[in-house]
Design the sequence.
């Protein structure tokens, strides 16, 4: 199917190439190459030569990108029309369903906070199903969420979506309290306006930040992002609880000496690292934190130090056990 590029006349609304590429989940360079080599879309251009992609263009890009990710060659599907792409997508989905017939489908739960967002998600329930997501709980406000948690209400949700009227420093504090200890693997804040500093603080803490989705395409991209974020392996879990020291200083010295048959000094160096990481965790927690960004940064540094210390403690324990030495009790 040949696609002819036209020029924009009058007032036309559309996405520029960078935005269209982000919505489709691909680098803008890939989008340009696919256009030039395969003619997958032919967006009109403005008088200045700027491409403007329509909703239909973006939907086509998303569909083709998904099929390429599933193993189809771009050259074999680039010129298919929408009906042919839909049929190919449907047949691929049926094969995937048959392949998973004996497996329990993985559905991730959402905890949704906001007065409008739950209604929008209900309206686009089909999008949730396509992404393997399900709303498990909804709250009109952050206060309602916190009140439910105070009552001991537990929700089987892996993803937290929070819609706020504005994003400010106090919002950051509220959201971080919500993620802490909630068992969420991914979290996102949706807002219409706010400060760049508050957004940066949440980014630093591993919380995704989105402007309020203006249409179905943007909402679909948000949900797809959260699904991928939830499945991503994390070195430090979002808002996770820290692990206590397993060995006090006396036990560390004992473990270091118990690995004497090892010719190198690695056990002693591991003990030194454990002590230094423990000291750094304490130092980071006590640092002066004058802003939410500072508090987020130092909390993150402390979490990483805690995670690393725990990993080295496990390594030291394995070394001792490997040489038949008893492991002393924890701190």
Sequence:
């Amino acid at each position: 199917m040949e696609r002819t590029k036209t020029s924009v006349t009058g007032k036309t609304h559309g996405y520029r190439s960078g935005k269209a590429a982000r919505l489709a989940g691909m680098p803008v360079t890939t989008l340009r190459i696919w256009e030039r080599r395969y003619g997958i879309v032919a967006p009109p251009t403005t008088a200045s030569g700027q491409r403007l992609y329509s909703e239909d263009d973006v939907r086509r890009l998303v569909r083709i990108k998904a099929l390429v990710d599933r193993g189809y060659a771009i050259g074999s599907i680039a010129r298919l029309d929408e009906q042919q792409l839909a049929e190919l997508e449907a047949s691929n989905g049926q094969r995937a369903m048959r392949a998973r017939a004996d497996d329990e489908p993985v559905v991730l739960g959402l905890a949704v906070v906001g007065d409008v967002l739950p209604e929008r998600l209900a309206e686009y329930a089909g999008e949730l199903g396509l992404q393997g997501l399900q709303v498990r709980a909804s709250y009109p406000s952050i206060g309602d969420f916190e009140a439910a948690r105070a009552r001991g209400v537990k929700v089987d949700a892996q993803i937290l979506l929070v819609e706020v009227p504005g994003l400010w420093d106090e919002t950051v504090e509220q959201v971080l309290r919500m993620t802490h200890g909630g068992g969420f693997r991914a979290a996102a804040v949706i807002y219409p306006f706010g400060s760049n500093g508050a957004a940066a603080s949440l980014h630093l803490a591993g919380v995704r930040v989105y402007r309020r989705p203006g249409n179905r395409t943007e909402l679909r991209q948000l949900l797809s992002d959260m699904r991928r974020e939830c499945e991503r392996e994390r070195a430090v879990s979002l808002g996770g609880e820290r692990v206590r020291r397993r060995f006090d200083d006396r036990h560390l010295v004992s473990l270091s000496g118990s690995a004497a048959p090892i010719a190198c000094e690695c056990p002693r160096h591991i003990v030194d690292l454990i002590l230094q990481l423990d000291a750094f965790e304490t130092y980071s927690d006590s640092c002066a934190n004058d802003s939410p960004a500072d508090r987020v940064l130092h909390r993150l540094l402390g979490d990483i130090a805690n995670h690393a210390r725990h990993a080295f403690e496990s390594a030291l324990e394995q070394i001792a056990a490997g040489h038949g030495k008893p492991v002393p009790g924890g701190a």
Observations:
- The two ends are 70 Å apart (CA to CA).
- The beta strands are 108-113, 133-139, 159-163, 186-191, 208-211.
- Residues 96-104 have pLDDT under 50 and may be disordered.
